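Blinded run. Sample ID left blank on purpose so nobody reads anything into the name before looking at the predicted structure. Input follows.
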Amino acid sequence: MSGMLTKAMARNVFYGGSVFFFLLFLGLTFDTVQGLPETDNRHNLTEAAARGKHIWETRNCLGCHTLLGEGAYYAPELGNVYERRGPDFIKAWMQAMPTNSPGRRQMPQFHLTEEELDDLVEFLKYTNGINTQDWPPNIEG
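Blinded prediction complete.
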């Protein structure tokens, strides 16, 4: 062998590598699809949860909080807050903000009505029911 890569060899490496990585891509895609949960949580989305999602979006809660790992890291993860704290705590916390405690991060007061608070709690209950395959890794988010 001359130690040089001929055009034919380069073409074979290109086509062989392309086929190999295309098959690898298909295999990984198939494996991912097989690992997806069978249940679909969309049927649990109530009108109240949809209104709560609208409140979540219009108040820019993702600007501070994370939800199922997405969002900012300034404030706690809220994907499982319904399970951790319960609906009464969530509503009381929202109504008590800001606490004006010096040296602490403060959540703004959004002046939500009782119905809006109930809708937001329903949205957090809905997100708590999503199969996240054990995310977040610790119970406190």
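Unblinding after everyone has recorded impressions. The helical segments are 7-35, 47-58, 81-85, 87-96, 114-128.
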